[in-house]
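Q: Convert this sequence to structure tokens.
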Amino acid sequence: MPIAKIVLDVLKPRELPLTSLVERLCQLEGVEAVSADVIEVDAMTETLKLTVEGTAIDVGRVARELDSMGCALRSIDSVAARRARAGGR
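A:
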């Protein structure tokens, strides 16, 4: 079943703009929407709650993209799958 939504606990470097992170994740295949909430701010990092929604999210690809931006995926807090509709729609 395709993954339709994931909620992630992510640690990001403060110098990485939040808008850049969200825009890059939105460009991934199967991703339709990304929202980010800042939970905590430290001197060098920000803790985020990231919600990624789409039609067929590749969780591994999302994790690799976060890593390439210097972010640490701390946990996957929620996952939702959606059954593919008949006819591939």
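The chain is about 20% helix and 45% strand.
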